[in-house]
Design a protein that fits this description.
alpha/beta, 11 strands
């Protein structure tokens, strides 16, 4: 039986269809989840995709955090279900406190859209096992509220516990502290990052490479071996 991955759609989500396609390319079943439904439809994992949910009013991800579907996502994430937050999804994960820190406006105050080189710092999470620590990958980046911040104590804890999953290379695109592009929770089942791996899963589109496919094949292996 194929593992099922829920992809949540909020009002203003942009990349749910791209994420569903990436899930299918990796050999998983993509299951659309609507923000107003608490029922996760017996999925094995959840992706919160990119976009501008609720128009980023109040603060990016602040309103989505209270969507009915998030009650179930939070509960299941705390029970060990793999959850990936991409861009706006990462913002939602910080708002729910499934991941520490916050996302602020880019330090240059402009929207940025470019291919971004990253270094894999942690290859032991549910979403990164198909990479190796130190590996360099390139995936698209597009955001205006992508600057990751946290207090020094939290940053030191993330570093000490190996919870920084990705770091920006060849220039910090948004002013994120310590060049952090993505982090994980202590258990390694919840990962958030600002770049978009779902846009780098087949040669025809995105970067022209498949560097992002490893997120989804990592999950496949995790679920198959569970």
């Amino acid at each position: 039986m194929t593992a099922r991955v829920g992809v949540v759609t909020f009002p203003g989500t942009l990349d749910d269809r791209d994420t569903q396609r990436a899930v299918r390319i990796a050999g998983l079943e993509a299951v659309p989840l609507w923000h107003r439904d608490k029922d996760l439809k017996q999925v094995d994992a959840v992706v919160l995709p990119g976009g501008f949910s609720y128009g980023d009013y109040l603060r990016a991800g602040a309103i989505s955090r209270f969507s009915p579907v998030m009650e179930s996502v939070i509960e299941q994430a705390k029970a060990g279900m793999p959850v990936l937050g991409i861009c706006n999804g990462f913002q939602v994960l910080t708002e729910t406190h499934l991941l520490p820190g916050a996302m602020l406006r880019n330090n240059h105050l402009h929207f940025i859209c470019r291919d971004q080189k990253l270094r894999v710092e942690n290859a032991d999470t549910a979403w990164t096992a198909d990479y190796r620590a130190g590996q360099q990958i390139s995936v698209p980046l597009k955001n205006i509220d992508g600057r990751y911040v946290a207090d020094e104590r939290t940053l030191d804890e993330l570093e000490a516990e190996g919870r920084v999953v990705f770091r920006y290379l060849d220039g910090n695109p948004n002013g994120s502290l310590r060049d952090i592009a993505g982090i994980t929770n202590a258990a390694g089942n919840v990962v958030g990052l600002m770049p978009h791996p779902e846009h780098a899963v087949e040669p025809l589109i995105g970067t022209g490479r498949t560097d992002g496919l490893g997120f989804f094949t990592s999950l496949l292996k995790k679920l198959v071996n569970s």
